[in-house]
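Quick note —
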Amino acid sequence: MNRLYYGDCLSIMRDEMNLSSIDLIYLDPPFSSNRNYNAIYKDETGRMLPDQVEAFCDTWELDTERERAIREMPVLMREVGIDDEIAEFWQMWMIALRKTQPRLLAYLSYMAQRLLLMRSILRPTGSIYLHCDPTASHYIKVLMDTIFGHENFLNEIIWSYRTGGVSKHWFGRKHDTLLFYAGNKKKHTFNVLKEPSYNRGFKPYRFKGVEEFKDSEGKWYTLASIRDVWEINAIGRSSKERLGYATQKPLALLERIITASTNEGDVVFDPFCGCATTLEAAHKLKRKWIGIDIAIHAIKRVAKVRLADRLRLVEGIDFTIEGVPRNLEGAKDLWERDKYHFQKWAVEEVDGFVTTKRTADGGIDGRLYFAVPRENDLQSMILEVKGGKNVTIADLRALHSVLEREEALMAGLIVMEPLGDRKLSNFKKLIADAGDFDVMGRLYPRMQILSVPEILEGKRFDTPGAVGRGDPQQAMALPISL
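Predicted structure written out below.
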């Protein structure tokens, strides 16, 4: 059955996917360009979120996790059969980049970890297309040669488009790059595709085996094999395809890739599926599909708008959603497996947005944004998640201190299990002491607490209309319960 996963593709590929099980991988990962993707989370007023949203902002730092990945990379490469000489080259390259471009090094180590796993799940008859822009495409090419083998490189495809503005200081940047590799160059699936080749209105010279056609305007053309420069229109602002993603790719692009490199019934995998253009293209072409995204907002949007509304697919019959806790036991299991990911899930499930760093941010794990009348900027509730069993009044006092320090309007505490009667009574006293604030005659408690069972039952923090609770076509974040 088709599968949509919520989580980091690194852990899902490692723990959930079989070796040599995928026929085509298409990935459009976050580029190393420091672009902020929180535009997809505008509320109906058109206001942007004040802070960067973690899952859609490709800001890279050499934090503890990245440093560990860099140290382990030569070992991981040898484990999948990459020559020692290449592993040593990686080490030398990393030393050079650490001194000159540390953010790029962080990005490349992130990609290397995931590409190594993609190599292991790709069938020898399969292919991988990595979509990137000129910011890092030349570095990614070296990485792809290292992992998939230079001998398996097939094409550097240029996707050319005409949308957007131009600069007064350089030529208009109107193309992306797709790096196309085979699992095994001698075995990979490839279906030759053809497109019309016009002859300026004149009837072409006849060649044996070449068919001639006239289009609806009476122009003569032949069918020629598609070359490595693709002119496919990007998605316009008024397009019916648009779901609000700044980097959304057109269906026609994915349909071409899938048609060329798979056959009906093959498995197509997108590890950064975002708004799931790949999944829709695969479904229309009668391929099986697997998609992963690290943001619950994206998973909700895909499940509702793309799969249910547009494709009329039914969860449990046509596809499954994996990795989203459905009950308290599932939430506890996620906490034990990955505490940071549990924190992300809890924040996003209450329509909040996680902070940009994995490390503690002074008691702030996320924020829930809302509009207040006569205020130009969105206001926020700071969120803290406590997944352990021993939550004390000291934790609530610490959150109260953060609330005062940040001069925020509200603070919310998320705990794993409901509090006992005595503890709840003590918590309520401190919550009452924090007071309320008035919005058009409606009082909202400045401090609030929710347990995971309450969240799973659909309860949310009591705030003015939150950004993530509006119409999915307007607010660009879906309130459906998974």
